[in-house]
Amino acid sequence: xxxxxxxxxxxxxxxxxxxxxxxxxxxxxxxxxxxxxxxxxxxxxxxxxxxxxxxxxxxxxxxxxxxxxxxxxxxxxxxxxxxxxxxxxxxxxxxxxxxxxxxxxxxxxxxxxxxxxxxxxxxxxxxxxxxxxxxxxxxxxxxxxxxxxxxxxxxxxxxxxxxxxxxxxxxxxxxxxxxxxxxxxxxxxxxxxxxxxx
Amino acid sequence: xxxxxxxxxxxxxxxxxxxxxxxxxxxxxxxxxxxxxxxxxxxxxxxxxxxxxxxxxxxxxxxxxxxxxxxxxxxxxxxxxxxxxxxxxxxxxxxxxxxxxxxxxxxxxxxxxxxxxxxxxxxxxxxxxxxxxxxxxxxxxxxxxxxxxxxxxxxxxxxxxxxxxxxxxxxxxxxxxxxxxxxxxxxxxxxxxxxxxx
DNA sequence: CCATAAAGCTAATCCGATTAGCCGAGCGCC
DNA sequence: GGCGCTCGGCTAATCGGATTAGCTTTATGG
Lengths: 198, 198
Prior knowledge:
The first copy, chain A, is mainly alpha-helical and 198 residues long.
Protein backbone atom coordinates (compact mmCIF):
# COMPACT_ATOMS: atom_id res chain seq x y z
CA UNK A 1 0.00 0.00 0.00
CA UNK A 2 2.87 2.44 0.31
CA UNK A 3 3.75 4.52 -2.61
CA UNK A 4 6.84 6.46 -2.71
CA UNK A 5 10.49 6.51 -3.04
CA UNK A 6 12.50 5.80 0.05
CA UNK A 7 12.23 2.90 2.41
CA UNK A 8 13.83 2.50 5.80
CA UNK A 9 16.24 0.00 4.29
CA UNK A 10 17.30 2.57 1.69
CA UNK A 11 18.02 5.11 4.35
CA UNK A 12 20.03 2.71 6.45
CA UNK A 13 21.99 1.44 3.47
CA UNK A 14 22.79 4.97 2.34
CA UNK A 15 23.74 5.86 5.90
CA UNK A 16 26.12 2.94 6.02
CA UNK A 17 27.72 3.95 2.75
CA UNK A 18 28.05 7.51 3.92
CA UNK A 19 29.65 6.40 7.17
CA UNK A 20 32.11 4.28 5.23
CA UNK A 21 33.00 7.20 3.05
CA UNK A 22 33.20 10.18 5.36
CA UNK A 23 33.76 8.40 8.67
CA UNK A 24 31.31 7.36 11.30
CA UNK A 25 31.91 10.47 13.38
CA UNK A 26 30.65 12.74 10.66
CA UNK A 27 27.52 10.81 9.90
CA UNK A 28 24.71 13.35 10.17
CA UNK A 29 21.07 13.55 9.26
CA UNK A 30 21.60 16.53 7.02
CA UNK A 31 24.37 14.98 4.99
CA UNK A 32 22.48 11.74 4.63
CA UNK A 33 19.35 13.54 3.53
CA UNK A 34 21.31 15.42 0.93
CA UNK A 35 22.78 12.22 -0.43
CA UNK A 36 19.29 10.83 -0.75
CA UNK A 37 18.02 13.97 -2.47
CA UNK A 38 15.67 14.75 0.34
CA UNK A 39 15.37 17.18 3.24
CA UNK A 40 16.51 16.10 6.67
CA UNK A 41 13.14 16.01 8.39
CA UNK A 42 11.89 13.56 5.80
CA UNK A 43 14.23 10.92 7.12
CA UNK A 44 12.24 10.80 10.30
CA UNK A 45 9.50 9.11 8.37
CA UNK A 46 11.81 6.13 8.02
CA UNK A 47 14.11 6.07 11.02
CA UNK A 48 13.57 7.26 14.51
CA UNK A 49 16.36 9.79 14.68
CA UNK A 50 20.13 9.65 14.53
CA UNK A 51 20.58 7.15 17.32
CA UNK A 52 18.15 4.80 15.69
CA UNK A 53 19.94 5.20 12.38
CA UNK A 54 23.26 4.41 14.01
CA UNK A 55 21.90 1.35 15.65
CA UNK A 56 20.36 0.12 12.41
CA UNK A 57 23.67 0.58 10.67
CA UNK A 58 25.29 -1.48 13.40
CA UNK A 59 22.71 -4.19 12.85
CA UNK A 60 23.27 -4.07 9.11
CA UNK A 61 27.00 -4.33 9.59
CA UNK A 62 26.79 -7.22 11.98
CA UNK A 63 24.35 -9.00 9.73
CA UNK A 64 26.51 -8.56 6.66
CA UNK A 65 29.55 -9.60 8.60
CA UNK A 66 27.73 -12.69 9.75
CA UNK A 67 26.89 -13.64 6.20
CA UNK A 68 30.37 -12.98 4.97
CA UNK A 69 32.11 -15.06 7.59
CA UNK A 70 29.57 -17.83 7.38
CA UNK A 71 30.27 -18.11 3.69
CA UNK A 72 33.98 -17.99 4.35
CA UNK A 73 34.06 -21.00 6.61
CA UNK A 74 31.71 -23.07 4.50
CA UNK A 75 33.18 -26.50 4.00
CA UNK A 76 36.34 -25.68 5.86
CA UNK A 77 37.62 -26.72 9.23
CA UNK A 78 40.52 -26.19 11.58
CA UNK A 79 43.33 -23.96 10.48
CA UNK A 80 41.73 -23.56 7.12
CA UNK A 81 38.46 -22.33 8.53
CA UNK A 82 40.17 -19.97 10.95
CA UNK A 83 42.32 -18.44 8.25
CA UNK A 84 39.41 -18.04 5.90
CA UNK A 85 37.30 -16.49 8.61
CA UNK A 86 40.05 -14.08 9.49
CA UNK A 87 40.56 -13.09 5.90
CA UNK A 88 36.87 -12.44 5.39
CA UNK A 89 36.65 -10.50 8.62
CA UNK A 90 39.63 -8.35 7.79
CA UNK A 91 38.35 -7.67 4.31
CA UNK A 92 34.99 -6.60 5.63
CA UNK A 93 36.23 -4.09 8.15
CA UNK A 94 38.66 -2.69 5.67
CA UNK A 95 35.95 -2.24 3.09
CA UNK A 96 33.43 -0.93 5.61
CA UNK A 97 35.15 0.95 8.39
CA UNK A 98 32.17 3.19 9.06
CA UNK A 99 29.76 0.32 9.36
CA UNK A 100 31.99 -1.57 11.73
CA UNK A 101 32.60 1.47 13.86
CA UNK A 102 28.86 1.68 14.33
CA UNK A 103 28.94 -1.69 16.04
CA UNK A 104 31.76 -0.79 18.39
CA UNK A 105 29.93 1.59 20.63
CA UNK A 106 26.45 0.17 20.25
CA UNK A 107 24.63 -1.02 23.30
CA UNK A 108 23.64 -4.64 23.24
CA UNK A 109 20.83 -5.79 25.43
CA UNK A 110 19.94 -9.46 25.12
CA UNK A 111 18.27 -12.13 23.00
CA UNK A 112 15.55 -10.66 20.84
CA UNK A 113 17.55 -7.53 20.29
CA UNK A 114 18.42 -7.40 16.61
CA UNK A 115 21.99 -6.45 17.22
CA UNK A 116 22.39 -9.16 19.79
CA UNK A 117 21.04 -11.74 17.40
CA UNK A 118 23.21 -10.57 14.55
CA UNK A 119 26.26 -10.71 16.79
CA UNK A 120 25.21 -14.15 17.92
CA UNK A 121 25.32 -15.32 14.31
CA UNK A 122 28.87 -14.14 13.95
CA UNK A 123 29.73 -15.85 17.20
CA UNK A 124 28.11 -19.01 15.92
CA UNK A 125 30.59 -19.07 13.08
CA UNK A 126 33.41 -18.62 15.55
CA UNK A 127 32.00 -21.41 17.65
CA UNK A 128 31.89 -23.67 14.61
CA UNK A 129 35.56 -23.02 14.04
CA UNK A 130 36.38 -23.77 17.65
CA UNK A 131 34.38 -26.99 17.55
CA UNK A 132 36.47 -27.98 14.57
CA UNK A 133 39.50 -27.61 16.78
CA UNK A 134 37.97 -29.93 19.31
CA UNK A 135 37.47 -27.29 21.95
CA UNK A 136 35.48 -28.74 24.82
CA UNK A 137 32.08 -27.32 25.62
CA UNK A 138 33.12 -26.10 29.02
CA UNK A 139 35.86 -24.05 27.48
CA UNK A 140 33.83 -22.92 24.51
CA UNK A 141 32.55 -19.76 26.13
CA UNK A 142 35.99 -18.66 27.14
CA UNK A 143 37.60 -19.51 23.83
CA UNK A 144 34.80 -17.73 22.05
CA UNK A 145 35.26 -14.60 24.07
CA UNK A 146 38.96 -14.74 23.52
CA UNK A 147 38.46 -14.88 19.79
CA UNK A 148 35.95 -12.12 19.99
CA UNK A 149 38.30 -9.88 21.90
CA UNK A 150 41.00 -10.53 19.40
CA UNK A 151 38.97 -9.77 16.32
CA UNK A 152 37.07 -6.92 17.86
CA UNK A 153 40.26 -5.40 19.14
CA UNK A 154 41.86 -5.75 15.78
CA UNK A 155 38.91 -4.14 14.09
CA UNK A 156 38.72 -1.32 16.59
CA UNK A 157 42.40 -0.50 16.35
CA UNK A 158 42.39 -0.94 12.64
CA UNK A 159 39.42 1.28 11.90
CA UNK A 160 40.63 3.92 14.34
CA UNK A 161 44.04 3.78 12.75
CA UNK A 162 45.14 2.93 16.23
CA UNK A 163 48.87 2.74 15.73
CA UNK A 164 49.96 3.25 12.20
CA UNK A 165 49.36 -0.32 11.35
CA UNK A 166 50.16 0.74 7.90
CA UNK A 167 51.77 -1.65 5.49
CA UNK A 168 52.74 -4.64 7.53
CA UNK A 169 49.41 -4.78 9.26
CA UNK A 170 48.43 -7.83 7.31
CA UNK A 171 51.55 -9.61 8.36
CA UNK A 172 50.75 -9.04 12.00
CA UNK A 173 47.21 -10.14 11.42
CA UNK A 174 48.45 -13.38 9.93
CA UNK A 175 50.86 -13.87 12.79
CA UNK A 176 48.01 -13.35 15.21
CA UNK A 177 45.93 -15.95 13.47
CA UNK A 178 48.87 -18.32 13.44
CA UNK A 179 49.32 -17.80 17.15
CA UNK A 180 45.72 -18.66 17.86
CA UNK A 181 45.87 -21.61 15.56
CA UNK A 182 48.88 -23.03 17.36
CA UNK A 183 47.29 -22.39 20.72
CA UNK A 184 44.12 -24.16 19.74
CA UNK A 185 45.88 -27.11 18.20
CA UNK A 186 48.08 -27.72 21.19
CA UNK A 187 45.50 -28.16 23.86
CA UNK A 188 42.86 -30.54 22.54
CA UNK A 189 44.79 -33.62 23.78
CA UNK A 190 43.40 -33.02 27.22
CA UNK A 191 43.18 -30.64 30.15
CA UNK A 192 46.57 -31.44 31.51
CA UNK A 193 47.55 -29.20 34.36
CA UNK A 194 49.10 -26.24 32.68
CA UNK A 195 48.54 -24.09 35.70
CA UNK A 196 45.39 -22.11 35.52
CA UNK A 197 44.03 -20.47 38.58
CA UNK A 198 43.30 -16.83 39.01
CA UNK B 1 51.36 35.22 37.05
CA UNK B 2 48.10 33.33 36.85
CA UNK B 3 45.61 33.90 39.53
CA UNK B 4 42.63 31.83 39.97
CA UNK B 5 40.95 28.65 40.65
CA UNK B 6 40.80 26.12 37.88
CA UNK B 7 43.64 24.72 35.89
CA UNK B 8 43.49 22.73 32.70
CA UNK B 9 44.44 19.64 34.67
CA UNK B 10 41.50 20.19 37.01
CA UNK B 11 39.11 20.41 34.12
CA UNK B 12 40.44 17.28 32.49
CA UNK B 13 40.43 15.34 35.72
CA UNK B 14 36.86 16.39 36.48
CA UNK B 15 35.88 15.53 32.93
CA UNK B 16 37.37 12.08 33.33
CA UNK B 17 35.49 11.54 36.56
CA UNK B 18 32.29 12.72 34.99
CA UNK B 19 32.75 10.41 32.04
CA UNK B 20 33.34 7.50 34.38
CA UNK B 21 30.19 8.33 36.26
CA UNK B 22 27.65 9.23 33.63
CA UNK B 23 29.18 7.53 30.61
CA UNK B 24 31.45 8.89 27.96
CA UNK B 25 28.58 9.52 25.56
CA UNK B 26 26.96 12.01 27.89
CA UNK B 27 30.06 13.98 28.63
CA UNK B 28 29.16 17.59 27.85
CA UNK B 29 30.61 20.99 28.46
CA UNK B 30 27.56 22.14 30.35
CA UNK B 31 27.50 19.26 32.76
CA UNK B 32 31.20 19.49 33.39
CA UNK B 33 31.00 23.21 34.02
CA UNK B 34 28.24 22.66 36.50
CA UNK B 35 30.27 20.07 38.35
CA UNK B 36 33.08 22.55 38.58
CA UNK B 37 30.79 25.32 39.79
CA UNK B 38 31.42 27.39 36.73
CA UNK B 39 29.63 28.40 33.54
CA UNK B 40 30.29 26.48 30.36
CA UNK B 41 32.08 29.21 28.43
CA UNK B 42 34.63 29.51 31.22
CA UNK B 43 35.96 26.06 30.40
CA UNK B 44 37.25 27.38 27.12
CA UNK B 45 39.89 29.25 29.07
CA UNK B 46 41.39 25.87 29.92
CA UNK B 47 40.59 23.49 27.13
CA UNK B 48 40.03 24.09 23.49
CA UNK B 49 36.53 22.74 23.22
CA UNK B 50 34.88 19.40 23.64
CA UNK B 51 37.07 17.53 21.21
CA UNK B 52 40.17 18.77 22.94
CA UNK B 53 38.73 17.79 26.30
CA UNK B 54 38.00 14.30 25.03
CA UNK B 55 41.46 13.90 23.67
CA UNK B 56 43.01 15.09 26.92
CA UNK B 57 40.93 12.61 28.83
CA UNK B 58 42.20 9.90 26.51
CA UNK B 59 45.75 11.00 27.19
CA UNK B 60 45.11 11.03 30.92
CA UNK B 61 43.63 7.56 30.75
CA UNK B 62 46.46 6.12 28.72
CA UNK B 63 49.00 7.76 30.99
CA UNK B 64 47.39 6.43 34.13
CA UNK B 65 47.02 3.03 32.57
CA UNK B 66 50.69 3.09 31.69
CA UNK B 67 51.66 3.83 35.26
CA UNK B 68 49.35 1.22 36.65
CA UNK B 69 50.58 -1.59 34.44
CA UNK B 70 54.20 -0.60 34.80
CA UNK B 71 53.84 -0.86 38.55
CA UNK B 72 52.05 -4.17 38.16
CA UNK B 73 54.84 -5.90 36.30
CA UNK B 74 57.60 -4.49 38.48
CA UNK B 75 59.91 -7.27 39.50
CA UNK B 76 57.86 -9.93 37.79
CA UNK B 77 58.44 -11.96 34.68
CA UNK B 78 56.79 -14.57 32.51
CA UNK B 79 53.43 -15.90 33.53
CA UNK B 80 53.56 -13.89 36.69
CA UNK B 81 54.10 -10.62 34.89
CA UNK B 82 51.42 -11.35 32.33
CA UNK B 83 48.87 -12.23 34.99
CA UNK B 84 49.70 -9.19 37.03
CA UNK B 85 49.51 -6.93 34.01
CA UNK B 86 46.17 -8.37 33.05
CA UNK B 87 44.79 -7.94 36.52
CA UNK B 88 45.89 -4.33 36.65
CA UNK B 89 44.52 -3.64 33.20
CA UNK B 90 41.18 -5.21 33.98
CA UNK B 91 40.92 -3.33 37.24
CA UNK B 92 41.63 -0.03 35.55
CA UNK B 93 39.04 -0.30 32.84
CA UNK B 94 36.46 -1.51 35.32
CA UNK B 95 37.15 1.41 37.60
CA UNK B 96 37.36 3.92 34.76
CA UNK B 97 35.10 2.92 31.88
CA UNK B 98 34.57 6.49 30.73
CA UNK B 99 38.25 7.27 30.61
CA UNK B 100 39.03 4.15 28.66
CA UNK B 101 36.22 4.74 26.22
CA UNK B 102 37.81 8.07 25.46
CA UNK B 103 40.87 6.25 24.19
CA UNK B 104 38.94 3.89 21.96
CA UNK B 105 37.88 6.32 19.32
CA UNK B 106 40.73 8.78 19.61
CA UNK B 107 42.85 9.47 16.59
CA UNK B 108 46.49 8.69 17.04
CA UNK B 109 48.98 10.36 14.80
CA UNK B 110 52.60 9.51 15.49
CA UNK B 111 55.59 10.03 17.77
CA UNK B 112 55.39 13.36 19.52
CA UNK B 113 51.66 13.10 19.84
CA UNK B 114 50.87 12.85 23.54
CA UNK B 115 48.41 10.06 23.08
CA UNK B 116 50.80 8.15 20.91
CA UNK B 117 53.54 8.46 23.48
CA UNK B 118 51.28 7.45 26.33
CA UNK B 119 50.15 4.42 24.35
CA UNK B 120 53.75 3.62 23.59
CA UNK B 121 54.47 3.46 27.30
CA UNK B 122 51.74 0.89 27.79
CA UNK B 123 53.11 -1.03 24.85
CA UNK B 124 56.55 -0.90 26.38
CA UNK B 125 55.24 -2.76 29.39
CA UNK B 126 53.72 -5.33 27.10
CA UNK B 127 56.99 -5.62 25.26
CA UNK B 128 58.81 -6.17 28.53
CA UNK B 129 56.49 -9.04 29.30
CA UNK B 130 57.04 -10.56 25.90
CA UNK B 131 60.78 -10.24 26.23
CA UNK B 132 60.48 -12.16 29.46
CA UNK B 133 58.90 -14.95 27.47
CA UNK B 134 61.84 -14.95 25.14
CA UNK B 135 59.95 -13.66 22.15
CA UNK B 136 62.37 -12.93 19.33
CA UNK B 137 62.75 -9.38 18.13
CA UNK B 138 61.46 -10.17 14.69
CA UNK B 139 58.24 -11.46 16.15
CA UNK B 140 57.96 -8.80 18.79
CA UNK B 141 55.91 -6.42 16.71
CA UNK B 142 53.41 -9.08 15.84
CA UNK B 143 53.17 -10.47 19.33
CA UNK B 144 52.76 -6.96 20.65
CA UNK B 145 49.94 -6.21 18.31
CA UNK B 146 48.29 -9.46 19.16
CA UNK B 147 48.38 -8.63 22.85
CA UNK B 148 47.12 -5.16 22.10
CA UNK B 149 44.20 -6.46 20.09
CA UNK B 150 43.33 -8.84 22.84
CA UNK B 151 43.39 -6.32 25.65
CA UNK B 152 41.86 -3.54 23.64
CA UNK B 153 39.12 -5.82 22.43
CA UNK B 154 38.45 -6.98 25.93
CA UNK B 155 38.28 -3.43 27.18
CA UNK B 156 36.06 -2.28 24.34
CA UNK B 157 33.61 -5.12 24.74
CA UNK B 158 33.70 -4.86 28.48
CA UNK B 159 33.08 -1.13 28.71
CA UNK B 160 30.38 -1.29 26.06
CA UNK B 161 28.79 -4.16 27.89
CA UNK B 162 29.31 -5.96 24.66
CA UNK B 163 27.70 -9.27 25.47
CA UNK B 164 26.48 -9.55 29.01
CA UNK B 165 29.86 -10.52 30.24
CA UNK B 166 28.31 -10.29 33.58
CA UNK B 167 29.50 -12.50 36.37
CA UNK B 168 31.77 -15.00 34.77
CA UNK B 169 33.60 -12.34 32.83
CA UNK B 170 36.61 -12.63 35.07
CA UNK B 171 36.79 -16.32 34.49
CA UNK B 172 36.92 -15.82 30.74
CA UNK B 173 39.51 -13.13 31.16
CA UNK B 174 41.68 -15.51 33.15
CA UNK B 175 41.19 -18.20 30.54
CA UNK B 176 42.24 -15.76 27.87
CA UNK B 177 45.39 -14.89 29.77
CA UNK B 178 46.08 -18.55 30.31
CA UNK B 179 45.70 -19.18 26.61
CA UNK B 180 48.19 -16.48 25.75
CA UNK B 181 50.57 -17.67 28.41
CA UNK B 182 50.55 -21.20 27.03
CA UNK B 183 50.97 -19.93 23.50
CA UNK B 184 53.93 -17.82 24.45
CA UNK B 185 55.61 -20.54 26.47
CA UNK B 186 55.31 -23.12 23.75
CA UNK B 187 57.11 -21.39 20.93
CA UNK B 188 60.35 -19.96 22.28
CA UNK B 189 62.23 -23.22 21.56
CA UNK B 190 62.48 -22.25 17.95
CA UNK B 191 60.59 -21.15 14.83
CA UNK B 192 59.70 -24.62 13.72
CA UNK B 193 57.55 -24.61 10.66
CA UNK B 194 54.05 -24.51 11.97
CA UNK B 195 52.64 -23.34 8.72
CA UNK B 196 52.43 -19.61 8.39
CA UNK B 197 51.88 -18.04 5.05
CA UNK B 198 49.35 -15.57 3.89
C1' DC C 1 48.89 51.54 44.82
C1' DC C 2 48.33 50.71 39.77
C1' DA C 3 48.61 48.28 35.31
C1' DT C 4 47.73 43.96 33.58
C1' DA C 5 46.65 39.49 32.25
C1' DA C 6 44.18 35.61 33.54
C1' DA C 7 39.66 33.57 34.67
C1' DG C 8 34.79 34.24 34.94
C1' DC C 9 30.56 35.96 33.34
C1' DT C 10 26.60 37.29 30.28
C1' DA C 11 24.66 37.67 25.94
C1' DA C 12 24.65 36.25 21.39
C1' DT C 13 25.48 33.18 17.55
C1' DC C 14 25.66 28.82 15.15
C1' DC C 15 24.37 24.42 13.88
C1' DG C 16 22.45 20.14 13.78
C1' DA C 17 18.70 17.37 15.53
C1' DT C 18 14.11 17.12 16.09
C1' DT C 19 9.04 18.51 16.04
C1' DA C 20 4.70 20.58 14.23
C1' DG C 21 1.75 20.96 10.92
C1' DC C 22 0.71 21.54 5.91
C1' DC C 23 0.39 19.51 1.06
C1' DG C 24 0.19 16.63 -3.05
C1' DA C 25 -0.11 12.02 -4.95
C1' DG C 26 -1.39 7.37 -5.64
C1' DC C 27 -4.76 3.78 -4.45
C1' DG C 28 -8.61 1.16 -2.85
C1' DC C 29 -13.21 1.34 -3.11
C1' DC C 30 -17.74 2.87 -4.12
C1' DG D 1 -14.03 8.00 -12.63
C1' DG D 2 -14.44 10.21 -8.52
C1' DC D 3 -13.55 10.48 -3.07
C1' DG D 4 -11.19 10.13 0.87
C1' DC D 5 -7.25 8.23 3.19
C1' DT D 6 -2.62 7.48 4.16
C1' DC D 7 1.97 8.01 3.19
C1' DG D 8 6.16 10.52 2.14
C1' DG D 9 7.90 14.89 1.55
C1' DC D 10 8.23 19.80 2.65
C1' DT D 11 8.67 24.29 5.18
C1' DA D 12 8.90 26.66 9.29
C1' DA D 13 9.87 26.58 14.00
C1' DT D 14 11.85 24.88 18.25
C1' DC D 15 15.49 23.11 21.10
C1' DG D 16 19.80 22.30 23.00
C1' DG D 17 24.53 22.27 23.31
C1' DA D 18 28.86 24.09 21.61
C1' DT D 19 31.22 27.94 20.75
C1' DT D 20 32.37 33.07 20.28
C1' DA D 21 32.45 38.07 21.52
C1' DG D 22 33.31 41.23 24.58
C1' DC D 23 32.86 42.95 29.36
C1' DT D 24 34.24 42.60 34.40
C1' DT D 25 36.75 41.41 38.27
C1' DT D 26 40.71 40.25 40.87
C1' DA D 27 45.13 39.19 42.35
C1' DT D 28 49.72 39.93 41.48
C1' DG D 29 54.06 41.92 40.77
C1' DG D 30 56.49 45.94 40.11
